[in-house]
Please model this.
Amino acid sequence: MAVTLSVMTSPARPLPSASPSSRLLDWRVHFGVLALIWGFSFFFIKVGTAGFAPLHVTFGRVLFGTAVLAVALVVRRDRLPRGVRVWGHLAVAAFLLNALPFSLFAYAELTIPSTLAGICNATTPLWGMVLSLVALSEDRPTRVRAAGLGIGFVGVLTVLGAWQGFSGLDVTGTAMALLASLSYAVGWIYVRRTLGGSGASNLSLATSQVGLATLQLAVVTALFTSLPTSVEPLPLLAVLALGALGTGYAMLLQYGVVEAVGPTTASMVTYFVPVIAATAGVTLLDERLTWNTPVGAVVILAGAALTQTRRVSRRTTPPPVAVHHPTGTTGPGTTPRTDATATTDGAGGGVATGGTDGVDGMDGVVTTDGEPSRV
Model:
């Protein structure tokens, strides 16, 4: 997975020049690393929960992720957002896109394979489409998108083995994983309606959101769990990797890919996440994979892709041109337009990337990169 708030931006100063071939290689390498990190997030969750309580895993995840983002914030001499209203919306986004889904996935993987959790995460765009049709008046159903929703639903039933009466399936764990994906979609809708044009940078919003999730989980963890009686190296390393890489470093990689090729191409990383999650689960955790799991996953991804298609509007007059001022969002010297659209990514709950109609996210972090896109 994985949620980003995409806002039209314009750079205030040119970037260092580079040859087309070097730029192409650079973004492809970053894209591949990003897919690997988010795909392995479900593996890290499974290993982490073998030594820690689910809330400990989730708290460690956001804590280490915040640490990485905070260091980047200081290095880039950025500053945190201003305004009580913005912080209030960020607190809600932190709950819907980080604290809640991260916790649900951690609890889910106590009883379901990491492979299934990764595939459930891929249903986020399907939830996003359904909710956007209700909550966002500008989103209108098309035959292609409706077909995508139906195909995705068939894919879910295929993964779950509906014709077998869901035998051998842990209903509670699967339901929690699906609810985590639904939480991403709800959070995406909320972010799209409340945080467009906040004026803060991507990094500033991401650091603040994950930091607020850390505070929320610190309270919940202290109330409902006790300190670990022992700390095993492997689960600790898994939680460290989950947070520092999956929630921290991956967010920074995502910025680079979006800047290089735009959010539409960058959001395609979402389709590699369940494949990598399944590969890691089967090869490293010896998880059993029946035929219906990969087949259903492909059907889900095909349906999710169709739900993200947009009707091309025919204009008789040129669209208005936005005026940009050198004070703004995606870094020093840029500012967002107010016609923001939300997008997502993320693998296994976390920073999400994606498009205007759904949520695919791993790390559920608000950003303001790029232009309207698909997720």
